[in-house]
Amino acid sequence: MKKFCVSLFAILMVFCCCACGKKDNLDEIGQNLSLYNISVDVDVETKSVMGNLNLNYVNNSDDVLKNIKFHLYPQFFEEGNTDKVVASTILNDAYPNGMSYAKFDVDGVQVSGQDVSVIYSGDCDGILDVSLPASILPSDSVDISIDFSFILPNCEHRFGYGDNTINLANFYPIICVYENGEFDTSGYNSNGDPFYSDMANYVVNVGVNRDYVVAGSGVRANESIVDDRKQVTFNANVVRDFALVISNKFEIKSTKADDVTIEYYYFDDANADQSLRAGADAIKTFSNLFGDYPYSTFSIVKTDFIYGGMEYPNLVMISADIENQDDYMNVIIHETAHQWWYGLVGNDEYRYPWLDEALTEYSTLLFYDNNEGYNLSHSEMLNAYKSNYTLFITVYQDVLGDIDTSMRAIDEYDTEPEYTYCTYVKGVLMYESLYQLIGKDKFVDGLKEYFNLNKYSNATPDALISAFESASKTELDSFFDSWISGKVVIR
Ligand SMILES: [Zn+2]
Asked: How many angstroms separate the first and last alpha carbons of the chain?
């Protein structure tokens, strides 16, 4: 996610490839992954959705599994849970027409064709625990069918609708990551992006009124119209999530970045060509810097969204509230960098939000180094970060007396500004310090190595540190520890 924008004039805070040159073969890489076959039928008048997930779950762990757990993120948008999805300081912006709540139901679960009982657990009953009639061995698979239905809240968030768009993200039951002998059942938090998931393959069918345009992760494999309804099918291989944005106001522009088709879905954008170009330049730049973007499509989608932007595989949401074009393009570039840091190289965004966000934000600075002609530069942005961070520390120390500047899990920050400053702003300062310490070439080599060793899987802080150590032949544990633990003093 992008929580703030940087322009030439001000920092606006919204608390606020391989070596052979051939692209990775996603069909091959995705052979042993779980398959989500999702159908959703959207009623645009009532904002209600009937859905079904047909999942072929592949047990890629070394353990025999007797149950499978799923995140039900829409549960957190129901009445009584609003503090979990939006900070109180921005409640009125997120719900411009007054409070509005989701209603989400699981209507039935079958395993291999048999009805099974389920248990709800976790914060806000946000975890669905499905018992398996028969255990599944490592490398074996099982078919699970889940019928679900929901009503969207009138909320300018990932899961909700505004005056212009319907945002369908984190809307279906998604498998919890299984590691260290258990499923990770972290809940939801208004700070950052509380997500953690594994790579999988997706086939998603969407039914909607014929005058609506559907933007989605992956490749639009089919689109047909019968009477007043439209059916759209998307295929997305080797992605860790799937998102849709639906609108009857969308115009579409497209271009190519090498062999990637970039599509821009927008409304009210007098600079649409420029916005599209920023996304294409970002795909090219980051492919050159870190390693190839292996997918054939990338969609930039202007949406009703409370924060600057939000990343999903092959699709990024960009807030319609951003008025300054430089800020708007900066968010496009930030969200595009997430295709590498979060999308391809995944991480536990709940526990280590800095791992993808800090790297993504620093990647936007590297973008400006490689693209003259944009009205932002690495040095100007860096100076803004420095002065803003020291101001933040001063103000907080005056108010609180002391401040914890460690880079920590999203639920360990008392306020959204603390999360934002410690994760994004301090993160950028940490990477600038490393860049100065080991030099540009070794820094970029470290990122290439981190990408190549961890793409299509989930990385840890240790994996990042070891990639930079390998590229620079320098011991960096104490460097990272001093920044992450909050010991380093920035003046
Ligand atoms: Zn971000």
From this structure: 27
